[in-house]
Amino acid sequence: MAKRTTQFVCQSCGAVSSRWVGKCEACGAWNSFVEEVGGGTTIGSAVFGQKGRPMRKGRVVPLVELSGEIAQTPRLESGIAELDRVTGGGFVRGSALLVGGDPGIGKSTLLIQAAATLARKGARVVYVSGEEAVAQVRLRAERLGLSDAPVALAAETSVEDILTTLADGPVPDLVVIDSIQTLWTEVVESGPGTVTQVRTAAQAMVRYAKESGATVVLVGHVTKDGSIAGPRVVEHMVDAVLYFEGDGARHFRVLRSVKNRFGPTDEIGVFEMTGGGLREVPNPSELFMGERDGSSAGAAVFAGMEGTRPMLVEIQALVAPTSLGTPRRAVVGWDNSRLAMILAVLEAHCGVRFGQHDVYLAVAGGLRIQEPAADLAVAAALVSSLAGAPLGHDCVYFGEVSLSGAVRPVAHAAARLKEAEKLGFVRAVGPKLANGEAPNGLKRAAVAQLVDLVTRIAADGAGGAPRREQRG
């Protein structure tokens, strides 16, 4: 009989210690170690003894050549276009996906809608809920108008019982586990939700997906910093990691792909939360630009890219005089360090001073922008607010700003400009483009240096020029 050992596992990163410590040396978290009891044998000693002698007989794994025929992996289209876009064209059979998001953001609603759509198309779908009873899931399905879909439903948290149930009958096309933090297995003796239980349960479900060919979708809780709870190794085990983002004060939700072995990363799908569930938003630019006022100073339209999708969003800036010794810098939807860099470049190379002003920057609609191509739009919004000069309602901005003040080209410029032309914009300010890279109906103004943009706004502005200092 194997000897039982006691170990302490960090619930933030999964680090193991032989004794309890207050601060984890691996991730720096405080009071995160929890005592867990497991077997005395480890993964290595289960195969080889202390002296290197085999303890059990393994099987021979067939070895094949690198070259050979490659079978096209069939995909299972969910019927929800935005979800299929994020996954790369549909669920890949035999793959495991991890969907994370804040509580109440709509993870369960999205997955039950996808499960019902697939079931109506003839696929065998199993939905296992570990957080809600069967009656509660039925109430949600009835509210969404999905109660007639032939989805096999169960409320269970035991990994052994779930795998035995799935093996009893035909292999399902889709299995939804809501959520992975509620599962527990008899292999380990720690409580549900601990690092060891989450890792072991996820490994068992991923192994089932690979061996059976069924698509397994795991729902994961998130921590306070927005990352999926549990060890990071869970994200490495699955084939795709999707984050469901949104703000409770707004109706739209963004499904973002941060890892995908079978499709592009950083792809997004946009949904709108309604009384009847999540509704797809095929043209997010119209959603984020619907209430725009082009006559206000400090607002610039950014032609951005989210994965392979062009998207226009409005960047709003407010530069106001301050009486404080240290001016405030507040950012919503963009990188705070990036804003500090743009302010420094404007002061060093353009002579625009913000030392006596508070600066507030926000991305309209609650969307978060991560690409550096928004530098030029941010700079335009800042200068426009400081000068009190509106930028106009028919112009878009994009381009990366270097520390020397140069405006660098960005990828997918043609797609950005085509999206702007489709929504009625007639002018575009950005880096120099190659011939034929933009639509002919769009007027382009190439800026090589950031100071060219400041001069352009000062010349076109009706509310006064920005405050610049002459260099001697």
Topology:
Blueprint: E1 4-10, E2 16-17, E3 33-39, H1 43-47, E4 75-76, H2 81-87, E5 91-92, E6 96-101, H3 107-120, E7 125-129, H4 134-143, E8 152-155, H5 159-167, E9 174-178, H6 195-212, E10 215-220, H7 233-237, E11 240-246, E12 252-260, E13 268-274, E14 277-280, H8 284-289, E15 299-306, E16 309-321, E17 329-332, H9 336-350, E18 357-363, H10 375-387, E19 395-397, E20 400-401, E21 407-408, H11 413-422, E22 427-430, E23 443-446, H12 450-460
Parallel strand pairs: 6-10, 6-11, 7-8, 7-9, 9-10, 15-19, 17-18, 19-22, 22-23
Antiparallel strand pairs: 1-2, 1-3, 4-5, 11-12, 12-13, 13-14, 15-16, 16-18, 20-21
Mean pLDDT reading: 85
Give the overall shape: globular
Global Rg: 27 Å
Query: Which fold does the CATH topology of the largest domain refer to?
Result: Rossmann fold
Q: What is the count of helical runs?
A: 12
Number of strands: 23
What's the domain count? 3
Report on the biggest sheet.
Answer: 9 strands, mixed
What does this structure look like?
This protein has helices at about 45, 80-85, 105-120, 135-145, 160-165, 195-210, 235, 285-290, 335-350, 375-385, 415-420, 450-460; strands at about 5-10, 15, 35-40, 75, 90, 95-100, 125-130, 150-155, 175-180, 215-220, 240-245, 250-260, 270-275, 275-280, 300-305, 310-320, 330, 355-365, 395, 400, 405-410, 425-430, 445. By secondary structure, the protein is α/β, with parallel strands linked by helices. It has three domains: about 5-45; about 75-280, P-loop containing nucleotide triphosphate hydrolases (Rossmann fold); about 285-455, Ribosomal Protein S5, domain 2, CATH 3.30.230. The chain is globular and about 75 Å long. It starts with a strand and ends in a 12-residue tail after the last helix.
